[in-house]
Amino acid sequence: MENKVRKTNTVGDIKKAFVNLINEKGIRDINVTDITRMAGIGRGTFYTHFTDINDLLENIESELMDKLETDLSDVIPDAMQWLIVEKGARVPAPFIIETLNNFYQNREMIAALLSEQGDPYFLNKVKKIIFADLDQSVNRLDEQIEVNDDIPLDYAREFVIDELMGIIVYWISKPEPEEPRVVAQTIAKLQHKAPINVFTKQKGKLDHE
C-alpha cells in the first residue's frame, strides 16, 4: 500500500512539474532534466514511469480524454435532442454542464495544454470525442432533424461545437475561472442568440456618433 501511495505521489509530482514547465517555457522546450529538477526526483525515477516526454504527454492527455468520455457517456446521447427539440429551455444542456465540470476539475492541466505554450493538437482531440458522441446522437434523431437554410449538417455541427468550445477555452484559460454553474448560465443565455445579435446598440445612441 505504501509503495502504491509513493508511486501515485511521484507521478503526480512529475505531472505537476510538467504543467508548471509548460507555462514557464513551453512544451517544445521541456526536457527530462527540467522535470526531474522541478519535481525533486532522479532521472531514473522518471524513466521508471515514462519512456520520454512524449510518453508523459500522451499519458496525461489519454487520462483526460478517458475521463471526459466517461463523464459524457450518460448525457451525450440526448445532446442533440436537447439542442434541437428543447433549445428553448433556459438552462444549459446536460452535456455542456458535464464538459464544464470536467474541465474545471482538471483546469490547471487543461489550461496549460490549451495555451499557446501547450499542445496545438489538444483542442482537436477534445472536439473529436465530442463530435463522435454527437454523431451517434444525430443518427438517433435523423428523421427529426432539419438544418435551417439548407446548411449541410456537418457545417452546422462544426459551427455549434466551435462556438461552445470557444467559450469553454476562453473560460478555462482565465487566471481565475468562474465556477462551472456560472459559465453554464452564460452559455444558456448566449445559445438563444446568433453571434451577430449578441451586441446591440444602446438606446438613445445615434449611428456614427
Automatic annotation (TrEMBL):
Keywords for this protein: DNA-binding
Feature: DNA-binding region: 31-50
Name this protein carries in UniProt: TetR/AcrR family transcriptional regulator
InterPro entries, alphabetized: Homeodomain-like_sf, HTH-type_Tx_Regulator, HTH_TetR, TetR_C_Firmicutes
GO molecular function: DNA binding
HTH tetR-type domain residues: 8-68
Pfam short name (any one): TetR_C_8
